[in-house]
Input
Amino acid sequence: MLYTKVLRRKYNIVGWLLMIPAIVGFLVTVLYPIVFSLVLGFTDMKFSTNNIHFIGWENYKWLFDFSVTGGGKEFWRGVLLSFSFAVFSTLLQTFVGFIYGYILYCMSKRLKSIYKILVYIPAVLPTTAVTTLFKLILERNGLMDHILVDWLGFATTPNYLGTNGLTMVILILINTWRCVGITTIIYLIAMNNVDTAMLESARLDGCNNAQILFRMILPITWWSTIVNLLLSITGGLKAYDFIFVLTGGAGDTQVVGMYIYRTAYEYRTFARAIAMSFMMTLIVGSFTLLVNKVTKMVEDKI
Output
């Protein structure tokens, strides 16, 4: 018994020693930057670390001061725009992903293997490649204008990347095209785990395909819906890179990530950008918890 305790203690020591590189890496690359950034959020840091002064909660108070031009108004406008983009992208992406997943589920194995690759290709393409492609299509005198004017005879065409309302709709569609492959695969994995014997029993009892879809497959894949909702919403709230490349914030496309970037690198007020980033982190975390709570309530009623 004593030998067993000594041996177990040695194994524990060896285990902790093997964990040291991972712990050091976490402290250096994750925890230290977070703590350091949190501290900088309470300073007046501009472009460099010289002459930094502690100013307390002033940067966070500035976010809620709507009396000045820009500042809090622009930040919360960007938050609202990001939420709108995230919600509509999530709804469309979840709906289309479920439909795609069910279509793939009903296909033969040979066709399924081909179409899975085709649906998932946009999700693995580099963001710069995707945005460059769509910019060539949608910019003035681009491919879309060429098709509409030269081939179909339209007299005028809208500015796809600079018109309020229209541009945001186009961005939502592009984001859905990019990310729907992930949603589809998650749904397809869940559908493939449905017990085939149960489905056959339902068909023998007279259930048609619509009844099987809405009363059996949809409830069984509910957890996949929750995962897709969380991934899509958080991804939509963080969307920045492809919007920046496509529009540069023109029209009504200056989402909160773009405003934080401009505050840091154009306006050279890093401390305020850090404060906005932490505020956005709290908002996204709170919204994620709310989505979790709502989806669990819905699940209990299904």
